[in-house]
Specification:
The chain is mainly alpha-helical and 370 residues long. Helices cover 64% and strands 6% of the residues. It has 13 helices and four strands. Strand 1, helix 3 and strand 2 form a beta-alpha-beta unit.
Length: 370
């Protein structure tokens, strides 16, 4: 058996026989695949409280109230007598939105005058506010179209609008928060659990030996190959099985995912070997992961736009495999991107593989091994 394959076998056995490593690199990946997406299963908010301030007290305002109360996203929890009272309840967190029906609404509609409605939302929780405002706005728009029919009975049929807007989501077909966030977080989970497992094994071995670790090149190559196989299992487990079970956007460009995902995992392994070479104990790996997980996700600029990020942080993020890897896999998996569309990410990951691979060899290589 060649030294590389012998090292590969030893690495896989080391992972299987080390309870911390197997739990982190395999168990945590599978566990997260069921429990993390569960929080976003329903994708959208529902049954959120809103307040109605009816200053018109007409048949038209009561009809509008019935339409709003029938919404799945919102439910009417009160009808304060004034906008000031409703605003105090909104600020106290008792409601997510306010609909103000001004006086003379019915009279203005019947006379052919433009009627006005006021919609206010609580921005403390952006996801809730977005769904409340959007759903209520749709209901108000439907009410406005019916009001136009009423006006037509008095003033003649209005001319049809020259342009009709039809909205069709291209990628996130459910327009849900989970479909936008979970696929990107999945790549981060794979990255972090892989780094944690590498750090646990290297830190534990260094603690047992009591000195800095040294390996020959075939042994290093076998270790990298073993860690890479485990990382690829986690990556495609999320992109395939988990996305299918949780019904998230999937498919995309399979061959591109295979190539780009392999490059992402290779860069992650090289980064993990370099960073793990500094760990003197296995506990350091857990401390590193706890401290870096959230910053790594935000630096990937998946949930926070790059144009709003300070340039020094954008430059720093390019040194992290997660930045290019997360965006690469999301675009290849969900958006059917071609390799040409993600060429920047592929080149960046290739450069990082060479950079951290060289640094890992510098830190861990010894012609005679340890």
């Amino acid at each position: 058996m060649s030294p590389v394959w012998a090292s590969l076998r030893q690495t896989l056995l080391a992972v299987l026989l080390d309870r911390y490593a197997i739990v982190v690199m395999v168990g945590a990946v599978i566990l997260y695949s069921f429990f993390y997406p569960a929080a976003y299963r329903h994708q959208v908010a529902g049954n959120l409280p809103i307040l109605i301030v009816d200053e018109d007290h007409s048949a038209t305002s009561r009809e509008l109230l019935r339409k709003l109360d029938a919404l799945r996203v919102a439910r009417v929890v009160g009808q304060p007598s004034s906008i000031d009272s409703a605003r105090r309840q909104l600020e106290a967190g008792d409601a997510e939105g306010i609909v103000l029906i001004p006086a003379n609404l019915e009279r203005d509609i019947l006379r052919g005058h433009p009627a006005k409605l006021v919609l206010l939302g609580n921005g403390a929780y952006l996801g809730r506010a977005s769904w409340v405002l959007g759903s209520v706005a749709d209901a108000l728009g439907s009410f406005g179209r019916e009001a136009a029919v009423t006006q037509a009975a008095f003033m003649g049929v209005p001319q049809a609008p020259p342009v009709t807007l039809v909205q069709r989501p291209l990628y996130n077909t459910q327009e849900g928060y989970g479909s936008a966030i979970v696929p990107g977080v999945a790549e981060l989970i794979v990255h972090q659990t892989l780094l944690m497992g590498i750090g646990v094994l290297l830190g534990g071995r260094r603690l047992a030996l009591g000195r800095r670790l040294r390996f020959d090149l075939p042994t290093l190559a076998g270790m990298a190959l073993g860690f890479g196989l485990i990382g690829l299992f986690g990556l495609f487990y999320y992109a395939g099985f988990t996305a299918w079970v949780q019904d998230y956007p999937r498919g995309g460009n399979p061959l591109g995912q295979l190539f780009g995902g392999t490059l992402f995992i290779a860069a992650t392994v090289a980064f993990g070997l370099f960073v793990g070479s500094f760990f003197r104990t296995r506990e350091r790996a857990f401390q590193y992961i706890i401290a870096t997980s959230i910053p790594l996700f935000f630096l990937a600029n998946l949930s926070w736009p790059t144009v709003m990020t300070p340039p020094p942080l954008v430059w720093l993020s390019q040194l992290l495999p997660t930045t290019s890897g997360i965006n690469l896999m999301v675009r290849l998996t969900q958006m059917d991107a071609s390799l040409a569309d993600v060429s920047h990410e592929l080149v960046t990951l290739g450069v990082l593989l060479l950079l951290y691979g060289s640094l890992a060899v510098w830190r861990l290589h010894s012609p005679k091994g340890d």
